Every structure is written in structure tokens, then in C-alpha cells.
Amino acid sequence: MRISILQTDIEWSLPEQNARHAESMISQSTKSDIYVLPEMWSTGFATQAEGIAETDDRSLQWMRKTARRLDAVICGSIAIRWEDGYRNRQYFVRPDGTYDYYDKHHLFAHGGEDHDYDAGDHRTVAVWQGVRFLLLTCYDLRFPCWCRYRDDYDAIIVVANWPKSRMNAWHILLRARAIENQCYVIGANRVGRDPYCHYTGHSCIIDPKGRTVATSTREHEDIVTGELLIEEEQQFRERFKVLQERD
Prior knowledge:
Blueprint (H helix, E strand, L loop, with lengths): L1 E6 L7 H14 L5 E3 L21 H13 L2 E10 L2 E9 L5 E5 L9 H4 L8 E4 L2 E7 L6 H4 L7 E6 L6 H15 L2 E6 L1 E3 L4 E3 L3 E3 L5 E4 L6 E6 L2 H10 L8
Parallel strand pairs: 1-2, 2-3, 7-8, 8-9
Antiparallel strand pairs: 1-14, 3-4, 4-5, 6-7, 9-12, 10-11, 12-13
Helix pairs in contact: 1-2
């Protein structure tokens, strides 16, 4: 299975412009089975949701239209209005228009995300072409118990707005989650600046042994593409049975 990460710079609170830009980047990439966008790819990471979070489904509809056109999955999170509050919701959209979603469980209280947003209360595993993906969003990466393999997934997709100041943790945690769960980890991060932080990307795909399959070493927009060899992963899990001894 081929995965492409779109390491985008995000225009603040301009969903239509960000969608057009993502579409342009996709047109320049190789054909993939899944395209992954960063956290809050349509607006930027807005801890104050009022006036930023989408009250309609325009970005989701763009994801559905694009997935259908490409015959591929489109994945990424959007700040949305939900009932009487807000959610940081990651969508996993298939070509037939069906989708799964995951509401970010660990809200970034250090930055005030918990003031406006409601936390999700369940994990989501989305399936495409027989491969199972655990969906995580940014800060979730720091919590290994939430991420722990429960005989239910083959790979983790992490969409993020992870700032330059904490890049060392990004690299270490992506590899830790891959090694301890014997799975692929796809980390999609943004570049550029918003009103709060500077972002330098370093999006990557890590294999079940913690090795880099593909990465961006550039601190600007990029497309990171790699292959997931799920049969080899399954053979590794069977041969080196670490997961059978987990707590």
C-alpha cells in the first residue's frame, strides 16, 4: 500500500484556499492509495474555535469529492462545530463517500485547546484495502496507553501541528509508538507559521522496527511517499512475539 503525506503550509482560516492548495499538491504527487493532510489542515490549529471552526461541511465535502476523483482515501483533521460545542475531528474518507472519524481525545491544555473543544471518548480504527489504521491527532502521540495495540490495527496515522520547539519529541515518540506496537506509523506535520508557533514539518513514515521508510528533511512544503509492507509486518509480529507479552 502506498501512502503520501502532504506536508502543507496552512493559510489561517481560509478553508477554500487550503483545499485548492492541497489539490495542487496532490496533482504533483505520485499515485497513492492514501493521502494524509495535517491537523486542522483547512484552517490552521485554532485553540479559540469561535469564528474559525467550520459550521458547515464544506471541507468534508471537498475530501469526499477528491477521494472519489482519485480513487483513494483522504485523511486529515478539521475544526468543526458539533452540537453545542466544538471538536477537532479527523476524517478518513474513502472513494465511495463513506468515512470514519476520530475526535481528538487528548486536548492540548498547555495551549488552551481544552477551553473551546470537547474531547472524544473512543478510539477509531479505519479499514482500507484490508489494512487497519488507528487514527491519532497530534498530542495523542504522547500517551502510549491510548495508542497501545489491542489486536486491532496494522498502522497508526498521526496528523499534527507539531512545532519546531518540540521536534526532538516528535522524532522520538513516532519511533517509540512504532517499535512498541510493531506497526507502521505515518506522521503528517505542517510547515510555516500561524499566530502562535513555527512549524518545520519532518513528516515521515516509520516501519515496525523503528526505521525510516520515507521522510522530509526540508523545512518547507513537501510530499512524503512510502510503501507499507503489511505482510512483512505480520511476519515480523509472528516471528518476534513482543506483543503477546504486553501488559
